[in-house]
Description:
By secondary structure, this protein is α/β, with parallel strands linked by helices.
Amino acid sequence: xxxxxxxxxxxxxxxxxxxRVDFNVPVKDGKVTDDTRIRRAxxxxxTLLDKGAKVILMSHLGRPSGEGFESDFSLEPASKRLxxxxxxxxxxxxxxxxEDAKAKADALQPxxxxxxxxxxxxxxxxxxxxxxxxELASLADLYVNDAFGTAHRAHASTAGVADYLPAxxxxxxxxxxxTLGGMLENPKRPFCAILGGAKVSDKIKVIxxxxxxxxxxxxxxxxxxxxxxxxxxxxxxxxxxxxxxxxAGEMLEKAASKGVKVLLPVDVVVADEFAADxxxxxxxxxxxxxxxxxxxxxxETVKLFSAAIAxxxxxxxxxxxxxxxxxxxxxxxxxICEAVAxxxxxxxxxxxxxxxxxxxxxxxxxxxxxxxxxxxxSMELVQGEKLPGVEALRR
Length: 395
């Protein structure tokens, strides 16, 4: 397998470099409300600027129809925020690779940045249309991918462009691949994996992959109840995938055969409805009322999970342990955040998605070893899948 060429090695003085970034950021009233993804792209952007490149950035934002410009999904707010973070001129194109983008790309000077419009305004992007990829490539001399969050998608901007230009990996995408890959290939032990979220069906490949690699597997969140049912328990109105109960049981048997300790909730917080102000109480998993649903883990479960986390040397966490958006049911997820942050001897890796939202909510992101920017991409890498956006850089 060929090595990915790194942005460090790029020679780009006076050349146009088109960079796939992940500026899919939340926008309200025309302003970016969380600029984390923009900031994470800055090291690669600044390196290219320092090397004298003319930098062209491309990204998607939201889910437009693909039938042309839609003001609600314009990248202009992201461009404005970027301009506040870099000491150079940032120009916004009115289109993706049409007349305005071409004219502005041709006029671009070394050390300046051009931001193309939302890639998904053109439906050819998601189809990885070769002609669209060729049009994007025609704007530049070199290609850099630094958007790990979209690397699991074979789109024109993440895979197709690499067919037409010399391709390099940016700092963010390389860091993600090296960190997540290294964790799986040679983790410090004991290795504890914590998986939460709603559905077993969404995480089946990840669970199976981690059973082959970890020493302890902690299962929380909504999918825990499918595992509890596989053990003969009743879970009231809690989220349950009945079609996956047998499969959950098989995974528990697989873990046992490999000597992997699986920890499931022993007590939970149940509510009479799915609402922030629902009536709730804490009960054993053997006593979940038929007319209530579990929305968080309980105190004894927190102690059980926290003890396993404390003795680990590698920790991988993906998925909350409860409905942490509701304050009444956030205690378990917050406690897991704090337990992971408290273990300073461990390599702690937060695997994207809601787990990142949780560590940010509780102000603990800077106490984690690594916080992934990619939800789906992180999971596919963990479960052993090849990511099209990464493989394109190996050509």
